[in-house]
Design a protein that fits this description.
25% strand, Ribosomal protein S3 C-terminal domain, 3 domains, 7 strands, alpha+beta, GMP Synthetase, Chain A, domain 3, four-stranded antiparallel sheet
């Protein structure tokens, strides 16, 4: 029974991966970001996120109708309902940015110019950090890679699961394929977040501690710390 349940979940995950790969390959120019599949007894609801939804909808919905047939005949979905929208913030979506960089390289823009423009744009939208790696035959027949970073990019720990978004895209050029990897640390409060309190905040904390400890004496270590802070403030004044 347990193995059968595992098999069902694995099949669903594999199906989602196939749908995601199909959409990424066919709607590269639309800035495809991701897809959410919701299956129920009434049918399958497919929500597609893309930087340019109009390219997925098509003229008078022609592309959507074609997609609907593919989802039913190829992937075996029933009662398909498709909706398309932009991601919440395309500038902080790693897949959108990776596809955009790859498209610009294919159009003939220099890879360094494209990378630095993307780096500035992502950081200007509030990212904690960003890393862009471009690899392939960049300037000669010998393959190599260049890395561009800004801010703080997490590589391990809980912050990776909570804040980091990664994506890979490929630019197809006459001299070969150029790989683009984008890693974005999205806005948020990381686990290693530290902020130094201002002098006013420290004084408020001391005042509150003294009010709360009118009947009980504070620990000697805390009393010494409070005296040091107060003496430091008087000396500066």
């Amino acid at each position: 029974m347990v193995s059968r349940i595992y098999r069902i979940f694995l099949q669903q995950a594999l199906l989602r991966a196939k749908v995601d790969e199909y959409l990424a390959q066919n709607f590269y120019e639309a800035g495809y970001s991701g897809v959410i599949l919701t299956q129920s007894g009434l049918g399958t609801r497919i929500h597609i996120y893309a930087e340019r939804p109009a390219l997925i909808i098509g003229k008078r919905g022609s592309t959507i109708r074609r997609l609907n047939n593919i989802f039913q005949k190829v992937f075996g979905f029933e009662g398909v309902q498709i909706t398309v929208s932009e991601p919440e913030n395309p500038e902080l979506d790693a897949r959108v940015q990776a596809f955009r960089i790859a498209r610009n390289i294919e159009r003939g823009f220099h890879f360094r110019r494209v990378a630095f423009a993307a780096l500035r744009r992502i950081m200007a939208n509030g990212a904690l950090g960003v890393e862009i790696v471009i690899s392939g035959k960049l300037t000669s027949e010998r393959a190599r890679f260049e890395k561009y970073t800004a801010g703080k990019v997490y590589k391990s720990g809980d912050n990776v699961d909570v804040l980091v978004d990664r994506a890979i895209a490929h630019a197809k050029l006459p001299k070969g394929v150029i790989g683009v990897k984008v890693t974005i640390a999205k806005p948020g409060k990381p686990a290693d977040y530290i902020r130094i309190k201002s002098e006013e905040e420290v004084r408020d904390i001391i005042a509150r501690l003294r009010e709360e400890s009118e009947e009980e004496s504070l620990p000697s270590e805390l009393e010494e710390l409070i005296e040091e802070v107060e003496e430091g403030g008087e000396a500066q004044g």
